[in-house]
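Lab notebook, design round three. We kept the backbone fixed and only want residue identities now. Task for the bench partner: fill in a sequence for the structure below.
Input structure tokens:
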């Protein structure tokens, strides 16, 4: 299995592969080993550094000057290897360029902008829950968690309905590409030839519904603050980051409640806990498990020196279950205050779409809680291995109304 050894300088060395299918689908055991080994560990298989404790992950996320994103937020170092696609202007950039990109996209996805999308998000959730109740039992991944974001976020970004199913294999490419060149990435990339042209076409001005998030990006770019060529790339960020994250945030919520029926009863009796409940699901089963940074200087953390230009793997999901920060972290407890979790990141790169994600979670859980008394598994849930996401391939459930 896994071993922890110490180098002469006392740096814990981990031989386990965090990107093996086993560790990706059942990460919590490895995460405990990483946290207990020390504040900083060395991953021998990839010759990189890693942090899994809340304190260090949180501090690294906030320190963008030391922990750069411009060399990529995945394992690949953009200064040494050609990126698989032009780098994201948001995720894979540092200030000052990142700041300019963020100033375009931030306001379009900010709380005041949610007023325009709340009503359609609510009516779609109600209609979907209606259909699912009449089915009784279904797969909460393919029939709920994937359906809802594809419809409401797809509509909000303004992409054509036709071909929208391409967003799922594209996200599979994007999130596996942050990891090593393993079989998962190979499989994901086999769809590139069909998927990438649809994505490129959908980022174009003509493809986007007037008034949509996508059209607003084009309008802001037209206003002249950033180069014209930035518009399709910024729309691409929404299409890359907005679907699979929320699919698995909703899936995590369903999984959490189906395996903790007492918590569903609490939510049903106290619907005002819904936002807190979604936040707790993101803490407990963080959809985005990891991101990388690259050191811009030699840095010392808790007595360990990391040289300049090194990749550092930040385990967001492990930090969100660090017993040094959370009491009984393995318990899904919707009455806890999960704020401060790093499931949406932290610092200048914190999720720019988190308000949209939270709105989807709040509205879908409310629509379910309004009608559904009990959620139960009808078969074993199946994880979907992914180099970045804690994902599900199926959640077979039955829902019961009163
Ligand atoms: C982007 C991007 C892609 C994937 C994830 C992400 C979670 C951003 O293209 O900007 O943030």
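Proposed sequence:
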């Amino acid at each position: 299995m896994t071993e922890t050894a110490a180098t002469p300088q006392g740096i814990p060395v981990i031989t386990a592969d965090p990107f093996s299918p086993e560790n990706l689908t059942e990460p919590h055991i490895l995460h405990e080993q990483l946290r207990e080994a020390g504040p900083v560990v060395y991953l021998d298989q990839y010759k990189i550094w890693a942090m899994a404790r809340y304190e260090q992950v949180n501090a690294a996320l906030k320190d963008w000057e030391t922990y750069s994103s411009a060399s990529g937020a995945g394992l690949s170092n953009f200064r040494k290897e050609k990126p698989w696609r032009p780098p994201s202007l948001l995720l894979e950039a540092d200030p000052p360029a990142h700041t300019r990109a963020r100033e375009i996209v931030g306001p379009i996805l900010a709380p005041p902008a949610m007023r325009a999308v709340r009503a359609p998000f609510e009516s779609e959730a109600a209609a979907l829950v209606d259909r699912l109740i009449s089915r009784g039992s279904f797969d909460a991944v393919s029939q709920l968690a994937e359906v809802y974001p594809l419809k409401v976020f797809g509509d909000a970004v303004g992409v054509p309905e036709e071909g929208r199913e391409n967003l799922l294999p594209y996200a599979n490419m994007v999130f596996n590409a942050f990891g090593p060149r393993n079989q998962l990435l190979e499989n994901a990339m086999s769809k590139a030839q069909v998927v990438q042209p649809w994505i490129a076409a959908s980022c174009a001005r003509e493809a986007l519904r007037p008034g949509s998030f996508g059209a607003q990006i084009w309008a802001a770019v037209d206003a002249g603050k950033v180069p014209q060529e930035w518009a399709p790339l910024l729309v691409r960020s929404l299409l890359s980051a907005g679907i699979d994250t929320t699919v698995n945030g909703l899936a995590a919520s369903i999984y959490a409640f189906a395996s903790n029926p007492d918590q569903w009863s609490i939510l049903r009796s106290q619907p005002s806990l819904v936002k807190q409940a979604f936040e707790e699901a993101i803490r407990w089963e963080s959809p985005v498990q990891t991101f990388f940074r690259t050191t811009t200087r030699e840095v010392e953390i808790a007595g360990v020196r990391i040289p300049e230009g090194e990749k550092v793997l930040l385990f967001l999901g492990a930090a969100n279950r660090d017993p040094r920060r959370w009491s009984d972290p393995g318990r899904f407890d919707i009455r806890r205050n999960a704020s401060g979790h790093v499931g949406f990141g932290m610092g200048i790169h914190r999720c720019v779409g988190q308000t949209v994600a939270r709105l989807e979670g709040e509205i879908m859980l409310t629509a379910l809680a309004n009608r559904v008394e009990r959620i139960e598994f009808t078969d074993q849930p199946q994880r979907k291995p992914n180099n970045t996401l804690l994902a599900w391939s199926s959640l077979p459930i039955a829902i019961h109304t009163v």
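Keep this in mind before ordering anything: Residues 5 and 175 are 30 Å apart (CA to CA).
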